[in-house]
Amino acid sequence: MRILGITIPENKRLEIGLTALYGIGRSRAQKILDSVHVDYGTRPKDISTDIENQIRKEIESLKLEGDLKREVAGNIKRLKDIKSYRGTRHAKRLPSRGQRTKTNSRTVRGNVRKTMGSGRKKAEKT
Questions:
Q1: Class level of CATH domain 2-62
Q2: What is the pTM of this model?
Q3: Mean pLDDT per 10-residue section of the chain, whose length is 126 residues
């Protein structure tokens, strides 16, 4: 089953498989399946063509994948252009939602390092 050029995993439940699409999480997948009257646990390989087309029609009415990514990127670019606080945090690649930066936020800063304990070698016992 392919939707918007993305292959939905055949052996996973539809509720989980639909989350392969960018912009669809568990709750949105459940709403889509409720509107089409399909059980969450159904496997994509077990559904008929007309139900698949109903799901596809329901999904194509939403803003997903490339359009959604473009919108998010546009929103971030707008924040940077108006030089808002959030925009400058995005530009500096720092957390933009108030998290502390003295510790943590290592992954977003690209400063991933291993913890070394005290930094000194232990005295060997002989």
A1: mainly alpha
A2: 0.68
A3: 82 89 91 91 87 90 90 94 94 87 76 66 67
